[in-house]
Write a structure and sequence with these properties.
The complex is a heterodimer of chains A (292) and B (332).
Chain A lengths: L18 H4 L5 H26 L1 H22 L15 H21 L2 H9 L4 H4 L5 H29 L10 H23 L6 H15 L12 H8 L2 H14 L5 H30 L2
Helix pairs in contact in A: 2-7, 3-4, 3-7, 4-7, 4-8, 4-9, 4-11, 7-8, 7-12, 8-11, 8-12, 11-12
Chain B lengths: L8 H5 L14 E12 L2 E12 L3 E5 L6 H8 L7 E6 L8 H7 E4 L11 H10 L5 H14 L15 H12 L6 E5 L7 H16 L3 E6 L2 H7 L2 E6 L2 E6 L1 H8 L3 E6 L2 H6 L1 H4 L5 E4 L4 E5 L2 H10 L6 E6 L2 H9 L6
Parallel strand pairs in B: 3-7, 3-8, 5-6, 6-7
Antiparallel strand pairs in B: 1-2, 1-4, 8-9, 10-12, 10-13, 11-12
Classes of the chains: A mainly alpha (292), B alpha/beta (332).
The complex binds adenosine-5'-diphosphate (ADP) and magnesium ion.
């Protein structure tokens, strides 16, 4: 979808007679109609183009890191943690694999929905360019979200393949956890995006989010041990954590973890609800802030 | 490419409806009436009205904080007005934002190029926002790079460009959809004289092609050079309107005699200069005598036995118009 193949040199004045006929833009009415229909995709395309610039970081961060965890925890720690009974009758590796998948998506969300949003509104004001084009603030927000969603999917899919190669996803439904991870990323990321869009001055809020929200959620969401093995006093962290809801769902799909069906539905409702609420708030912030 | 390129018939037929008042309304590409914008307690734009016919180079001249950018943002369909009415190509930007913006090219006061992308990619990406296909955008991007004298920078990253180059790239970007209306908010502020002249030349060419230019500036020479007609704005209000020449004719004399007597004498000399020229303006560092014939006025000064440290006769400029209208200098 890029231009790399096209020659960048233009012959000043030496253009063939046929060329000017090609060089006509379609009418503003067509531009507007297309933008109204496809605007979100157009902006997503732009975000992906920028992401491509740091593609390797994405792969290393999104895949390399959880794989390292998987290896250290699942293979190393698992030799010490040998009581399969405590982990629903599966290997420790199979137990933590969905948790690491979900956590990786949430951590990616914590990056992609914070600094780039600040960049859009404040630092380099990248949202203001497209805002002057036929695109609407809602489309800029949703284009950004679509591109990050694609990153969630890609990163989770590669990760899932690695997990499957480790033999840590015994169920045939394991691939669904790729979608669950994407949902969990949005569920955590969209409310965060709304918050990021409301920040006028950078006072290190995002570092605080990482330290005081993401890290505790990562540790206390039934990631490395079942949530109910924690004292009740901290169990609530899991209940409000997209990582926990996502992880439990992921476990259901990747090794048939048994839980009441109502609870499974509750996980989905929680994740979808948070994502939708986050999306509405984000949209409102974008419209308000760009339309000033 | 995963975004469909073809335009359906439905798209083509869904042209937005024009406003009712056809007739004389349609000869104007932009009409603003009592346009007002407030930010909390601040009234940035305070009920301004103007109309711009197609092909005109129309300027907003005023000091910092006059409300120029705010007006441009409302015209550009990115900022909602508080009250008043606004019509661009017969469309209200509030209800037809995408349609209005599809007609425009916009050069904002602050460059917002994509610094992470290469120079040429900035043009391609921007064209995509208009749904323009790559088959059009590739040759068009090259043409615009040539126009902006940036062809040899096509593959550079944006942050490697100088201020003047970035400004030219922003202008090139604003032309990617071949707009017939171009909004330029302080296009040359912060550029060195040479870069300004290159830019002016490019804008002249666009004007020759019949593109309607709306530009703001606080440089009077820029306004005089580029604008067919302008409004002088201060504190969100229009102080005067007309062509540069007619404004000078109306609010100033043909020539100005500038005298410096040293900062102490400047303040008190006024009484002794009484009666020379048509009007006297005392500034902290100099005294301005407005007269049809500056040399003659200078002779009268000498005849009264007054010996200024320096004296200068020059033609009136928009600076003088502004001074007359507001009692303040345009550039501090
Ligand atoms: N987003 C904003 N929020 C609050 N006040 C603003 C905002 N934008 C502009 N203003 C105020 O509106 C007035 C006009 O600003 P502006 O249109 O930028 O003037 P100019 O472009 O002529 O320098 C100024 O007093 C400015 O402080
Ligand atoms: Mg301004």
């Amino acid at each position: 979808m890029t231009d790399q193949s096209a020659p960048a040199v233009s012959d000043a004045g030496g253009r063939g007679p046929a060329a000017p006929a090609l060089l006509r833009a379609h009418s503003p009415a067509v531009s507007a109609a297309r933008a109204r229909r496809w605007g979100s995709f157009y902006y997503a395309e732009q975000v992906l183009r920028v992401m491509k610039g740091y593609g390797w970081t994405i792969v290393m961060y999104g895949v390399g890191q959880p794989v390292a965890y998987l290896f250290a925890m699942g293979v190393g720690l698992a030799t010490l943690v040998d009581s399969q009974a405590a982990f629903g009758g599966v290997s420790y590796l199979a137990f933590i694999a969905p948790a690491l998948l979900i956590s990786a998506a949430v951590m990616t969300a914590a990056n992609e929905f914070t600094f780039p949003v600040m960049d859009g509104f404040k630092w380099r004001r990248v949202y203001y360019g497209p805002h002057a084009s036929p695109l609407t603030p809602e489309q800029i927000a949703s284009g950004h979200i679509m591109a990050v969603t694609l990153r969630f999917l890609l990163q989770s899919a590669i990760y899932f393949v690695v997990v499957a190669l480790f033999g840590a996803s015994p169920s045939g439904w394991g691939w669904v956890s790729v979608l669950v991870a994407t949902l969990a990323g949005l569920s955590f990321g969209l409310p965060l995006m709304a918050y990021a869009a409301s920040i006028k001055e950078d006072k290190g809020q995002f570092a605080m989010v990482m330290r005081f929200i993401v890290t505790p959620l990562f540790l206390f969401s039934g990631t490395f041990f079942p949530l109910d093995s924690l004292p009740l006093a901290v169990q609530w962290i899991g209940w409000i954590s997209p990582i926990w809801h996502g992880t439990e769902l992921g476990r259901v799909f990747s090794y048939g973890y048994e839980e009441p069906p109502l609870l499974t539905i509750a996980h989905i409702v929680f994740l979808v609800g948070l994502a939708v609420a986050g999306w509405m708030l984000t949209k409102r912030q974008f419209v308000r802030r760009l339309g000033q | 490419m995963w975004v469909p390129e073809l335009v359906s018939n439905e798209e083509l037929s869904s042209k937005p409806s024009r406003s009712k008042t056809q007739g004389d309304q349609m000869q104007y590409v932009i009409t603003a009436k009592d346009l007002t914008k407030t930010y909390g307690d601040v009234t940035a734009v305070d009920g301004i009205s103007f109309s711009v016919p197609a092909g005109e180079a129309f300027g907003l001249l005023g000091p910092n904080g006059a409300g120029k950018s705010t007006t441009m943002k409302m015209i550009g369909g990115v900022s909602q007005r508080t009250s008043g009415s606004l019509s661009i190509m017969g469309l209200d930007p509030e209800s037809h934002g995408p349609e209005v913006r599809a007609h425009l090219g916009v050069v904002p006061q602050q460059d917002n190029l994509d610094e992470e992308l290469k120079v040429r990619d900035n043009l391609l990406v921007y064209g995509r926002y208009f749904g323009l296909p790559m088959s059009y955008l590739r040759p068009k991007a090259d043409e615009l790079l040539e126009f902006a004298q940036l062809t040899d920078k096509a593959k550079s990253k944006v942050d490697a460009l100088s201020g003047g180059m970035k400004r030219r790239l922003t202008i090139a970007r604003s032309l990617i959809n071949e707009p017939r209306i171009l909004l330029l908010d302080e296009p040359t502020t912060g550029l060195d004289p040479q870069a300004r002249h290159i830019l002016w030349d490019r804008l002249f060419r666009l004007k020759e092609q019949g593109v309607t230019l709306i530009l703001t500036t606080h440089y009077m020479d820029e306004a005089e050079q580029l604008c067919d007609r302008l409004i002088v704005v201060d504190k969100g209000r229009i102080m005067a309107e007309g062509s540069p020449a007619s404004l000078i004719r109306e609010y100033s004399t043909r020539e100005v005699l500038e005298l410096r007597f040293g900062s102490e004498r400047n303040a008190t000399i006024g009484a002794e200069l009484e009666g020379i020229g048509e009007r006297l303006e005392t500034l902290p560092d100099r005294v301005l005598i407005y007269a049809h014939d500056g040399e003659a006025a200078l002779e009268q000064v000498s005849a009264r036995g007054l010996r200024p440290v320096t004296s200068l006769v020059r033609r009136s400029s928009l600076e003088d118009v502004f001074l007359r209208l507001t009692g303040r200098s345009l550039v501090d």
